[in-house]
């Protein structure tokens, strides 16, 4: 009986703890945003009804019957880029234009401008029409690109013939003149006045060759700069070189420099060229042996070392230290391949142990021109440059000499220079920023919304 009572008691306890049969509470509904909704749609039949607007494609089933031939798009719009070292017709062929039409178009454009003047990176809009024969290239329907800052070129097919349509672009070439007070920082003041960063850097470089930016220019001085500046009627801006740089003190110009000549040198208002100080380093390597007495590495005894030795690898270009005339170029005993250049002021420089000489005797050379290449000819332990300097034919320490060169304009060239300087002085500050008059030849065509959204294929 005791066992029965225990069984009954435990059974009653179990029944008392029996769970109820109420509804099970579900998890809260998840938040569904646009991305999750598109993911759900991609797994349903709905994308087929919507034309696959989310970019997903469902796998084909056995009910799908492949077409014998799929219809092609009636036209293709491409953007081809002219890369560096590429030719115009090769770029067109890469975009899908036939070889015959590519050569024809390149010839048409070559008759209008010099194709070599087209800058690398120029983008060409190309429209290819419907293919006439299966397997043949598509015919070109239209082509257009910016050939120059002031010229747009287009090729269109009219009545079955390709015709070139030059479209000149109105350009305002008024130079940009900016004046202002130097203040605490010449660079910041010029930038705040609206000068382009590249032009301010040029201004500091040019003025810095004539005046000390820290000691000779005060905060109350004025800066005056004129920049080559072009604006197209289509909205583009092209900033060129610095044309004029001046520092004004108490209303009077303290220093005036203007860019002149094919080399782009800067000359003072008097016609004197910018000051060029110091010798150009003949090679970029460090100095391994200086001028003076030393123990010769091959002969083994002490003797005078009449120049500077520069460390440099075999074949490194050697540059002329400054302008001059080649007095000797050839083999010269222990010097090996040797070049000697005579300069102004009864000075000369010598370059020894070259592997190869790049100039001839009697040739005029400019500062920085390559005159040969580093080697180890003659009495040498390894590739390096032995560099010497002479005054009146006698060797001197090259480290003790600094060259200062200035060009001087004379005659008709000086008159032309001053006439151009007077014209620049007539430019009003900020005149280049005035609003441009609308181009009467420019006609804006309405743009369809489908054309706005269309993504053209890029051809590289």
Automatic annotation (TrEMBL):
<dbReference type="GO" id="GO:0006508">
    <property type="term" value="P:proteolysis"/>
</dbReference>
<dbReference type="Pfam" id="PF01551">
    <property type="entry name" value="Peptidase_M23"/>
</dbReference>
<keyword id="KW-0378">Hydrolase</keyword>
<feature type="signal peptide">
    <location>
        <begin position="1"/>
        <end position="16"/>
    </location>
</feature>
<keyword id="KW-0482">Metalloprotease</keyword>
<keyword id="KW-0732">Signal</keyword>
<dbReference type="InterPro" id="IPR016047">
    <property type="entry name" value="M23ase_b-sheet_dom"/>
</dbReference>
<dbReference type="InterPro" id="IPR050570">
    <property type="entry name" value="Cell_wall_metabolism_enzyme"/>
</dbReference>
<feature type="domain" description="M23ase beta-sheet core">
    <location>
        <begin position="303"/>
        <end position="398"/>
    </location>
</feature>
<dbReference type="InterPro" id="IPR011055">
    <property type="entry name" value="Dup_hybrid_motif"/>
</dbReference>
<dbReference type="GO" id="GO:0046872">
    <property type="term" value="F:metal ion binding"/>
</dbReference>
<keyword id="KW-0862">Zinc</keyword>
<keyword id="KW-0645">Protease</keyword>
<dbReference type="GO" id="GO:0004222">
    <property type="term" value="F:metalloendopeptidase activity"/>
</dbReference>
<keyword id="KW-0479">Metal-binding</keyword>
<protein>
    <submittedName>
        <fullName>M23 family metallopeptidase</fullName>
    </submittedName>
</protein>
